[in-house]
Amino acid sequence: AELMLEPDLVRQIVSEMKRRTTSAEVTVKCRIGLNVRDTWGDLVKFVLASKEGGVNKMIIHARICVLNGLSPAQNRNVPPLRYDIVSRLVEAFPDMKFVLNGGVRFYEEADNLLGFDATTREYKTE
């Protein structure tokens, strides 16, 4: 998670990974922010750096990461889920793919999220 503090370094890492491989997809997995840097602008800067490095798909854990004060296990549960932030990313970067990560524990939760349209922030029903 701390690499989110260094978007330029992430851009370089991603670019080098893309340069060295032709057969594997390069993706970035991140949180929506860090407790020490948790603004929309910071997240956009990080996504832009990843995109400029050559990534077109990101896996987003829809919580912030608390760098000190929470254990790794607590970081997976204590910060609230913010699926709305991932929705904003979908709107802001329509040419990229975002995979939602975090908080799905039961089939019903997964099924509910499958009907979620991030562009309208509404649930689709058939």
UniProtKB/TrEMBL annotation:
What SUPFAM superfamilies does its record include? FMN-linked oxidoreductases
| GO MF terms, alphabetically ordered | tRNA binding; tRNA dihydrouridine synthase activity
State the InterPro entries in the record: Aldolase_TIM, DUS-like_FMN-bd, DusA
Cite the entry's keywords alphabetically. Answer: NADP, RNA-binding, tRNA-binding
Record domain DUS-like FMN-binding: where: 1-113
Does Iron show up as a keyword for this record?
no
Q: Which domain of life is it from?
A: Eukaryota
Task: Establish whether keyword RNA-binding is in the entry.
Answer: yes
Q: Pfam families, alphabetically?
A: Dus
The protein's name is DUS-like FMN-binding domain-containing protein
What organism, scientifically named, is this protein from?
Spumella elongata
